[in-house]
Amino acid sequence: MSIRATRREETRQKILEAARSCLEEGDFEGASTREIAKRAGVAEGTIFHHFPTKEELIISCVCTQLAEAIEKGLHTMDPEWCFVDKMMHVASYRFTQIGLHPGLWSMIMQQVAFSPRKGAVNEMLDRSGLLKATRDLIEEAQLCGELNPDLSPDLIRKTLMALFLFTVHEHMSTQNFDCEDMCATLRELIEVQTIGLWARKPELAV
């Protein structure tokens, strides 16, 4: 990497760190690009050389943290675990992040998860590597008979994402960010789906 490219990446990381610091305070409007630039020690215009919009900046903040959680989860799981255990192992790293940075994740729910821009959530999940990781685990479970192979992996994945967002929303509403409690909520929901719906192929009526 050239010196110029290295400096550009360093500046980008400073902006991301400053943005996370501002968003941690839970005030999206207060996290202005002027304030972010001040904390990063750069000109306000420099932010837009790296991130075209404020939403793009937020998505990039999230993607970095999600990617870290996914990588840790995937590389520390036992390949012999069942599908639910593997999913919960990855989810536990994400819930830990939420517990450590509730302000940031509250902002994510408000500004990204419920963003009016179509595709904002999928873009975030795709760039972080979560979509591929989840799909791979689903397809693996279908091949070994844990999940119904006739079901669309994308349909199962979308349901998993919905259950995860529901869990986060439920715990944010009560300000309970205990990782074990969040995992217990999500596990119960996933097990209901796995045992009651995804694992069984509906029988045709005679």
Automatic annotation (TrEMBL):
Where does this protein bind DNA? 32-51
| Swiss-Prot/TrEMBL keywords | DNA-binding
Looking at the record, the residues that make up the HTH tetR-type domain are 9-69
Q: Which InterPro entries match?
A: Homeodomain-like_sf, HTH-type_TetR-like_transc_reg, HTH_TetR, Tet_transcr_reg_TetR-rel_C_sf
Instruction: Offer an example of a GO molecular function term for this protein.
Output: DNA-binding transcription factor activity
Identify the PROSITE patterns for this entry. Answer: HTH_TETR_2 (PS50977)
The protein's name is: Transcriptional regulator
User: What is the species of this protein?
Assistant: Thalassospira profundimaris
